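STRUCTURE:
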C-alpha cells in the first residue's frame, strides 16, 4: 500500500516514531487501529441507543411525563 502524506506530516510521524522507538509503519498501524476502534465504539453506542429507544419507548415516555 502506498501512502502519500504531506511533507510536514511525514516529518512529524518520523519524529514521533523515533520518540516511541517504533517504525513509522508500526506507528501508522497503531493510528489505523485507533480509527477502527473509535468507529466501532461509536457504532456500538448508536446501536445501543437505538435498542433502548425502541424497546423502552413506553418507559421513557412515562419518565418524561413524571
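SEQUENCE:
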Amino acid at each position: 500500500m502506498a501512502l502519500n502524506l504531506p511533507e510536514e506530516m511525514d516529518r512529524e510521524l518520523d519524529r514521533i516514531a523515533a520518540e516511541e522507538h517504533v517504525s513509522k509503519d508500526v506507528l501508522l498501524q497503531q493510528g489505523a487501529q485507533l480509527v477502527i476502534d473509535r468507529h466501532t465504539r461509536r457504532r456500538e453506542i448508536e446501536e445501543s441507543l437505538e435498542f433502548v429507544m425502541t424497546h423502552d419507548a413506553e418507559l421513557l415516555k412515562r419518565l418524561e411525563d413524571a
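REMARK: The chain has a mean pLDDT of 93.
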